[in-house]
UniProtKB/TrEMBL annotation:
Chain ranges of the Response regulatory domain: 1-120
A Pfam family assignment: GerE
Name of this chain's protein: Response regulator transcription factor
Gene3D superfamilies: 3.40.50.2300, Winged helix-like DNA-binding domain superfamily/Winged helix DNA-binding domain
Residues bearing the modification 4-aspartylphosphate: 53
PROSITE patterns for this protein: HTH_LUXR_1 (PS00622), HTH_LUXR_2 (PS50043), RESPONSE_REGULATORY (PS50110)
Keyword entries, A-Z: DNA-binding, Phosphoprotein, Transcription, Transcription regulation
CDD domains for the chain: LuxR_C_like (cd06170)
Length: 194
């Protein structure tokens, strides 16, 4: 989802329309505070991006960006700044602190949407990585040991011998690992963790 935070109704609406014309799900937020209150906590692995105006009456875009950094959300929520009043030091500072891009108004809408699509792809990757890490964290210590041996290409008998457990126990651990990691084969598991 593309979130557009800009206090100018006409620009916000035209950006939502432009995004939707490119097949990008988009919603507009009239103020930074509304965005922070309503949307900032609900990002998922499907990918999100934020188009953020620098100058707004309630909270400026840089302050919003600071809050997102403090919440640890910028990896899953790439931020593209929009401004009619930007300067080079502001742009450089924003990019150094993790902003995805910085566009000055007026901007080329197609170039902007190309960057939005790239940011959404990055967000999806970060979200997917977070899901995999959460699944890994759900494994027990013994399941992690079995997982490492499976990934090393060891057969169940070898895993059982190395860990000093029965083959049936290895089979149970293997089934739990596949279930928790949401895969059906060792090849799929290896692809997920590469």
């Amino acid at each position: 989802m593309l979130h557009i935070v800009d206090d100018e109704d006409v620009l916000r609406d035209s950006l939502v329309w432009l995004a939707r014309s490119r097949g990008i799900e988009a919603c507009g937020h009239a103020s930074a505070q509304l965005f922070l209150d309503q949307a900032a906590a609900r990002f998922d692995a499907h990918g999100d991006c934020l188009l953020l105006d620098v100058r707004m009456p309630d909270i400026n875009g840089v302050a919003v960006f600071d809050q997102l950094i403090a919440r640890g959300l910028t990896a899953r929520l790439p931020v593209i700044f929009l401004t009619g009043h930007g300067d080079v030091p502001m742009a450089v500072d924003s990019l150094k602190r993790g902003a995805f891009d910085f566009f000055e108004k007026p901007f080329d809408g197609n170039r902007l949407m190309d960057r939005v699509e790239q940011a959404l792809a990055l967000s999806r990757q970060a979200g997917a990585g977070a899901l995999v890490q959460a699944r890994l964290a759900s494994l027990s210590a013994r399941e992690r040991e079995v997982l490492d041996l499976i990934l090393a290409g060891k057969m169940n008998k070898v895993v059982a011998d190395q860990l000093g457990i029965s083959m049936r126990t290895v089979e149970v651990h293997r089934a739990h690992i596949f279930d928790k990691m949401q895969v059906k084969t060792a090849v799929e598991l290896a692809g997920l963790l590469k």
